C-alpha cells in the first residue's frame, strides 16, 4: 500500500517538474528513492508553490506529512510559517527534528528565531547533542551575543562536547569575530585536531584586531606543525607585513609562497603587490606585477593605488593609460584610487576627462568615487563643479561631507564649510576625527574662536582630544585666533605628541611673536626623542630669523650637517638662508646656497627672493642684480611681483632710483601697489620728488583709500618745501574722503577684552591710562625721542 501511494506521488512529481525541465527521472529507479530526491532538489527550493502542491497531494493521498524532508523543503525556500506549522505536528521528543529546524533557521538568517527554538528545546526537556550546538553558536556569532555564547559554552563543557572539532570551531569563530581572541586561543589550544581553516580563523582574528605580534607567532607555530599554510593563510600574514612595514619578513614570505607553489594564485599575488606598495618598494612591486600572466582588475588597482600613495603621480597616470589600452575596464575602485593622482598633478582637464569617462561608460558613482571627484574639483579650484556633484547626490556619508568641508576651507569658503558641518550635525551624521580636523581651520579663517571652542568641546566629549592630528588642528586654531595660552594648554594635555603636534606649536609661537618659546619647544622636542623633520627645522629657523641671536641658527645648521639633513626640502634651506640674510650675513647666505645646489636641491622663487633681499640688507646691489638675472636665465624661474618689489627696494636703498624705475617699466605684467609703494618709499628716503609724484599717481589709482601713500607723499613734498603741492594732496584726501584709520589694539584681562583706539576717551579708565602715557612720553623725551607730526604743517600755518 505504501509503495502504491508513493508511486502516485512520484507520478505527480514527474507531471509538475518535467515541463520545467528541472529534474530528470529514470523509470528504472526505485520510486522510494525519488521522493527524498525530489524534496531535497535545489530546483524546488526556488519554487514554494510547487512544494505546496506536492504537500497537498500527499495529504489527499493519505500519506503522512510529518516528514522531516518536507520541513527541510519549507526551510530551504524560506517559508518560516509553513515550516513552523509542520514542525509542531511532528514528534517534538526527537532531537533530530529540533536540529533540523534550528539549522534551517540559521541558514535562512533568522538567528533570533533559531535561538528561540533552542531555548524551547531546553524547555521541553530535550537534550541537545553535538549537531545542535554548531548552529546555535553560529546564531550567537551573527547577533554578536557573546554573553549568550559563553553560557552555551559552559553547557557544552558540562556535556563534554568542547573538544568536538565542529563545535570548537564555531565557538572559536564566535570569539574571534567579536574580538575575544584570548578566549578563542584558550579553546584553540585544547582542540586535538586543528585543520588549516581553524588556523586561518585564529590568524585572521589577530590580524583584524591588529595584534600583529600574535599573528606572526601563530603563523610560525602553524609552520612548525603538520598543517601546511594555504592561500588564505598567506593573504592574512602578508597583510600584516604591509600594515606594519615589515618588508624584510614579507620578502621571506614571498620566497615561501614560491616554494609552496602559490605564487600564481591571484589572491596571494595581489596581497604581495599590496605589501610592496605599502612598504614603498614599488620597483619590486612593479616587477611582480609584470610577472603576473593575466593581471586581473584587483592587480591593476593595487599597482595604481601603490603609485598614488607613494607620490608617483606620473607613473600612476601612465599605468592607468596602459590599463585602458590593454582592454581592462576600470571600476569605481580603480577611479577612486587614481583620481588623487590627478589632484597631485593639478590637472583639471584630466579630471574632467575621467568624469566624462565615468558618465559615458555608466560606472556606478558610489560615495567613494563621488568624494574623489569632489576632492579633485575642489583642489583644482573648480568649486562649482564640486558643488554640482554634491548637490546631485541622494546619499551622503561622512567621507563626502569631509571632502566638501576641507575643499571649501582650501578655497577660502569657510562660511560654506561651517554650513555643511552644521547640516551634517542636523542630519545626525556623526563627524569623525578627520572631519573635525578639517572644519577647525574654517574657524581660524573667520576668527570665530567661540565656534572653535564649541568644536573643541565636542572633540573632548567624543574622546578624540588625544588624536595627534586633531590636537594639532585645535592648537593651530587657538594660536591663529590670538589665544596662544589656550594653544599651550591643549598642547600640554596631549598624552601623545608626534612631530606634527610639535611643529604646530613651534610654528604658532614663532608666528605669534614668541620666538624664544619656539626655540625652547624645539629643544624640548629633541629631548623627548621625537625626530626632527624638515618642517621642524624650518619652523625653528623662522623663529631664529626674528631673534638677535644668530648662534641659535648656527647650532641648527650644525645639527643639519651632523645628521645629514642636507636632503631636506627647499623650504628648510630657504628658511636658514633667510635667517642668515635677515641678520646681514650675506656671505653665509651664499655659502648655504652653494651647499643647497651641491645637495641637488633645486632652488625655487623663494630661495632667490631671500638672497636678493639679503643683498639689499648688505648693500651689495650688483650681487642682487646678478642673482636676479641668474634666477631668470640659468634656472628658468620667471620673476614674480615680489621679486620686482625686492629689486626696486635693492636699487632704491642704493640711490639708483632711475634703474629702479626702469626695472618697473620692464615688468611683463602691471605693477601692483606694493611695487609702486616701494619706489615711493625709496623716493622719500632719497628726496626724489619727480619720481615720487609718478609713483603716487599710480598708487592713488590702484589703492585710492590708503591714507599712508598720501601721508608719505605729503611729507616728502613738505621736506622739499613744495607747500602748494602739499595742500593739493590734502585737498585730494578730503575730496576722496580718505581718512587716517585710527590704530587700535586690544588685550584680554580676566576674560574681558579691552580695546584702545588712538585719541579715544571712551574707556572707563582712560584718565589713568593717559596720565601714565604722559609720564612715559616725558621719560622718552629725556632719552632723546622727538615726536613727529602725522602731517607736516606749513610754517605760515604754524605762525597763524
Automatic annotation (TrEMBL):
GO terms for biological process: plant organ development; RNA modification. PROSITE patterns: PPR. One of its GO terms (molecular function) is RNA binding. PPR repeats lie at residues 195-229, 296-330, 397-431, 498-532, 569-603, 604-639. The keyword Isomerase does not apply. Gene3D superfamilies: Tetratricopeptide repeat domain. Pfam families: E_motif, PPR, PPR_2, PPR_3. Keywords: Repeat. It comes from the Eukaryota. PANTHER family: OS03G0781100 PROTEIN, OS07G0578800 PROTEIN-RELATED. This is DYW domain-containing protein. The lineage of its organism: Eukaryota, Viridiplantae, Streptophyta, Embryophyta, Tracheophyta.
